[in-house]
Structure formats: C-alpha cells, structure tokens
C-alpha cells in the first residue's frame, strides 16, 4: 500500500484511512503532550477530564465533530491516550533518530495488538483497519495510529512526519505538500521564524 494517492497528489483517496489516523496522532500529540506552542509555553492537560475535553475540542476544531467513538471515550481512556501520544511523539521530526524511534513504535504495535483486519456493517462496504474487531477503544486507536505512522515511515516518507522548527514551539504536523518542504506547524510560526531571522541579520 502507498500513501501517494492520498491528499499529497489529490488523486483518489485510497489511503484516506491512513491519513486520518496520522492526523489523529498529530492531534493527540499536540493536545496532550505539547509544552510550547507558537512561541509560548503551554501546560498539557493533567487530569482525565481535561484530556477528554482537549481531545473533543481538537477534533471539533479540525472539522471532525465527536462521533460515536469519541463520545464513548472516558476520562480513564483519555489518560491512557496521553501515554500513547507521548510514545508516538518521537516519530515526528525524528530525522537521524528514526531507527531508535521506530523501535519504540514496534513495541507499541505489539502491546496494543495491531493487526490488519477488515471491518464493516451489513449495509456498508468493508474497510481495512489495523486493530482486532474486539479491541477496546484505546487499543484500537493506538493500533490504528501506530500502524499508520509505520506505513508512512515504511514507504520512505518519514520526513513528512514533521516537528515545527520555529523557536519555542513543539507542535507536530503531517506534511502533505508535494515536495515535503513544510517546516512549520502553521503560518504564524513561519512568520515568527522569518521575523527572527531578519532581526538576526540586522544585528549582524
């Protein structure tokens, strides 16, 4: 399977499932583990209720309002997902550390029982998921996100799992540009970095 047909080229979304799970990993890493964003320190949520609210708010802001699965999340699930997010974060911006990061990802896949599996309802087409049909919600999310990241890395596209290069920002992102040239989490950080570089040149 290749991630190429997804949004990177604008062709048929054969791998939209992979892309959506990578974006879910981005959301959880940013909402549950980030300690700085856009030049300012931030405090990650520390309680299950706060983490649950952060996940729901993040999905709503990304255009994915809470569905049945998100609504089924509990505060205890959110605490476990924060641990999963912390394990997934090293995949982003890994650079030469990718082999070490991948070893941690392999352990996560085993622990959460990742396995290719066809899921579907009687009146809907089958879809390929990466968790057992009987997996709990946290294991299902972890297996799906971990496998999606592994697939991106496994086709030589690890560079698309980016970390913001602006100062005082540890947000991560999935780079879907054609030439994998994205360096910042958003335009505000890009502008901050340009302004900082300009001031440095003026001082020099």
UniProtKB/TrEMBL annotation:
InterPro entries assigned: ABATE, ABATE_dom_sf, Znf_CGNR
Chain ranges of the Zinc finger CGNR domain: 160-202
UniProt xrefs under Pfam families: zf-CGNR
Name the record gives this protein: Zinc finger CGNR domain-containing protein
Organism (species): Nonomuraea muscovyensis
